[in-house]
Each structure stands twice: as C-alpha cells, then as structure tokens.
Write a structure and sequence with these properties.
By secondary structure, this protein is of the alpha+beta class. The chain has three domains: 242 residues, no CATH class; 144 residues, Rossmann fold (3-Layer(aba) Sandwich); 179 residues, 2-Layer Sandwich (Nucleotidyltransferase, domain 5). It is 27% helix and 26% strand. It is globular. The two termini are 39 Å apart.
Amino acid sequence: MENLKINIIPFQHPSLKKEFGFYKEKKEGYYPIHRTELPNELWDTQKEEIVKSKYYYTNFIDTIDCDFKTKVDFAYNAKFAKHYYTHSAYKHFANISDAIQLNYVKDIEVWFLDTALSTKDYNNYKVFTLKIEYSALTKSPALLLSYDGNSKVATTSIDKIEMPSNYFKTVIYNNEIFKFDSLSEDAKQNLINVYPLLNIPIKNHLHIPHDKPKKGNRYLPYFNYINDFYNNYLNTEAFRSIVPLDKNGFFTIPENEVYHTNYKSNNLRFYNNTEIDPKVGMKKIGPYKASPHPNVQFFFIYHKPDRKEYVAKLYDYFLNGYKGYFPSLKNHIKQPFFMDDKNSSLGFESPATAIKELKIHLINLEKTPNTRYVAIYISPIHKEDQDNKQLYYQVKEELLKHEITSQVIFKESINNNYFGAFLENITPALLAKIDGIPWRLDRDLKQELIVGVGAFKSVESNTRYVGSAFCFTNKGEFKGFDCFRDNEIELIAGAIGKQILKFIVDNGNDVERLIIHYYKPMGKEEIDPIQKVLNKLNIDVPIIIITINKTEANDYVAFDTSSPELMPLSGTIIEIAKLKYLLFNNTKYSQDGKAFDYPFPVKLTLNCTDEEYLKDIPTVKELIDQVYQFSRMYWKSIKQQNLPVTIKYPEMVAQIFPHFEGDKLPDFGKNNLWFL
C-alpha cells in the first residue's frame, strides 16, 4: 500500500484576535497592503475612508499614530493573514539564512551556504521556498516547503569582472538577493560587495566548468533536504511562535483522496497484441501499422570525406542489422524499401557550400512517381554546435520544400558503443515519417478531437512561436498540425476549426467534444475565436481546456514513504486545489516495480466552457487519464516521456520553426512528423 506524504505542513490560525495599525503614507520597512486585502473588520467600519487610497502600509507591529486600527480574526481574512505570516517568516529567516528574497510571486526564498560544494571561484547555496497558502488538501492554512536545487554565486564581485553589465541578472548584496536592474543606491555605492549569480556567459568569462545534468533518483535527496530543513528551522518553538505548524509535520494524504489512472492505461497496441514497453512491442510484436506507401526510397546526404567511415557503416547497419542487437531496418519497421546510395544521394564538398549544393541536387532529382522519399542526413556538425547549428535547420527546411522528410544523425554517434540503442530509438521516428504508426493507445474510439498547443521562445529572434492545431484522435493517431506566432490567435482558431471540420467529414459523425491541451492558462481572448469557429460550423460541444505545465512541478511533490525509492506509482493523481492536479507519470508501474527514471509530477489545471461538465468526477479522471496515455505516444524514441505529445510535439516544432527562412510551413510539413 502507498503511504503518500506531500511537502505541505498544515496549521491553524490562533484563536485570539490580533491588533494591527495601518498608515496612508509609505514608510521605510513597512509592508504595502492593497485595499482589497485589508481586513474585513476595517471594511465593516471604515469603508468610506479606505476606498480613497489604493495601498496602505503596516509593519504588523506599530499602531501609534496610525490612520486606521483594528483587531483581526485571521480565520476570516485569508489574504491578509498570508501577508502577516509571510512578513513575519521573512524577518525570522533574514536573521538565520545566508541569503534571502521574496520571489516574483512574493513567496520567501531562502539560501543556505553549502561549503562542501563551494570552491574558490563560487559559493554554492541550497535554495528553498516557503509559501503560505490555504490548502485544498489539508482544508486549512498551510506552509508549502519546496527544495529548488542549488545556486552558484561568484566569489568575485561585479566591480572586478570585466564584461558588459547586461550579463549580470541576479546578484547578492549584504545577504539579500536582488535583480541587478533594480539595485539599491547603497548597493551601487558598494559594488565591491555585490556578487553575481553564475549564468553561462559569466561561467565562460570566469572559466568555470558547466554543470552536467544529474541523473538518478531525485525524490530521495529532495525528501532528505526538506526534512532536514523542517527539523532544523521549522520544528522549533521560535518558528511556531510565528506560524503555528502542526506537530505531525508534512501532511499524509488520506487514501480516499489519492486517485489512479486506469490499470489498462499503460497498454499500447501494436500489430496484433498489446504491450507496455515500446521496445518490446516493436521487436516482438511489430508496429501497429506499416507505412501506407508501397514504395519508400531512402538516400544519404553527407560530407564527402565521411563516406567510408560513417555512411558505409550506417548503410550496412540498416541493411544487415547491428551486431546481433538490432535487426535490419526492413524487419524492424516492416517496410520494404530501396536505399539509393548512388543516384539520389548527395556528398557535398564542404559544410559551407552544403545548402547551395543541396538546392541544385534537389532541383535536378528525378523522383519516381508514387514514392515516399526519406533523406538520411549524416551531419558533420552537432546540432548543439552554436556556431554552425543553422545548417541543421537549413537542410530540414530545404528538404520539406521538396516533400522529403528526413532523419538527422550526427556522424560521431555511428561509432558510439551505444549505437544499437540509438537505432532502436530512431526506428519509431523513421516509421512515423513514412506515415506508419509504431503503436497507438489501446482504447475505444470516441468522437472527439484532441488539440495540443505548445510554445517555445526563440532567444535569437526574441519571438515566441506556437506549434498549434496539433490534432489527434483519442487513439493517439496524428491528424496534422500548423505553426504560428503566438499573436496569431485568429489563425490558431481557424486551424483548429479546419481540423474539426475535417474530423467530422472523415468520421461521418458529429464531434462529441473538443479537448485542448494548452501550454499555459488560456484566456478569454484565446477561447472566443475558437468558439466563434464552432458556432459558424453549427457545432455546439463543450470545449475542455487542460493547462499542462511543460516543466515538471518541483514546488508540490508527494513521496511514497512505503517505498525505498519514495516515488509514487505511475498514474497517481492528487488534487492540490479545485480542478488542479498533480499527475505522476513515470515507469514505476507496480509497488515493487523498478523505475527507469524519476520525473517529478506534471501539473494540470482543467476548465470547460460548460460549467457543469467538470463536476462529474469520473469525467475528470478520464480526461487526466487521457493526458497520461498521450505521454506514451512519443515516437521520437522508445523512451517514455512524462509530458503528453499534445504538448511535446508542438514545442518541438516551435523550437525549430524560428530557424526556417520561410514564414509558413509547406503543406507537406503540416502532415508529416519530420521534426522527430
């Protein structure tokens, strides 16, 4: 049996009323309170006066010469109580932490120096956040304690670092954390005592090595860190005099408030059977559907000097398999194909001339009718090579213009000892690119359309692009997509409308509901155009919007204390607020099962145009179950993702699209998974 604890500590307000004074004029060290968050007791007696100002000020202690004074019952003043507890806890930790700030949502962030991980070049801090809230789980006020990882701060002050000041983002001065752009006059006069938080440019300038991502179980250290923090700093009389925390510590979630996805939700359908593991399913059962194209032709694009050492090897691996580990590509994807190494392939003279040579090659390429072409680009340049990465995108775009999908393989990967595993990962992608279906969800068909909208902000262009109208059936079958800038709301709505119309025509049936998986909270200005499109089509169906955070939630984390690994079972669902959920999406399918990785939960928020629709708990569970299942539809590899493809795929496209020269995707690119 699971025993789930969450990083929330409940408490009860003091029964006695406290007296507070409020001032109209801003005072040094006093806390601003918006008039809407003033105590109800003040509104009851001084309404006509307090509406005259937007903000009032208090230090939660002084009442002498104040403009207004009242006794406050915290039980009826949740917002004001949050301000009081936050202010009091901040003052408490300002005296004991090594650095402190109120973050962008006004929660307390405290840093403690970790001398064991510090060096002469930087100080390493463990970072924690304390958030006061009313918890739907505990049905009481509560303190959320999260561990936010480490921050490294240079031991060299900014007055001694000779680089443009725009590289300084966050700094520490006198144990307080500031944005460099909003430094106080005092700090500016003492730059010798201002130290910058390390980022990539500063690390490069100071010759500090970059961190390698840590793998392994993240639940264990997180749990240990917050437990140590609780025992050292919260489980004390001094702190309880400020926030009267429950003596039991972190909240144990009652069994009846823990949901799970359906036990069949892990099943994927392959050719004639189901399997949980895509690797096993592809090898032992075979893909769900082979390519619908009778003729498929593969060809190579490569740097001429790489032909013998890399191209010839890969050709052999595709044809004959890899070291008994990987069968021939033909057997793996159940696709007879012709690999044209002589006529269609292109060996370019130099990366500098590659695109020019490719353009000429494609113009002169005599395609065989009714044949799907796939380019295998053996890249001499890694796509993360900052100076030369544009070539990767240029090759992709040029091929799409000629209705050719592609698979890019970095040449050095071919000689890697783990290339067999690499081949296993790219085969689902290759099959999907020739319109085959590696696997699908094992569920009954419903007349519903699932649309995913994701986003990626291009650093180079400073423009957010949105991969939108990424459409699927409820079985997870891909139906097409398009890509827009995020200010093109009408175009996004139009693309979704087209897909709905196509869906109705294809199925000869009315659509039951529209489900939108969105990368951020969806505003009225984004929903209204979609609603208008549906109205024009005379389609009256509920629109369900599920906001899916693309980053894993590390603010709310639950731990299964009955398991040595502490990670909850895959498919565990916890409601943390009204229609807001944590979904644990991992590979731990049973209590004694072994996980391959340890992702933190995904955070979901549900909304619907029909207010009554989400009052039905089984419907809500079904919708979350669907999100869970769609994470199994990732065809870029056989590795399961914690994010559904409805969010993952649009983000992948949106990440590539800004690098294309054209502002529109070719039609071929809208109906092919070329980006995998």
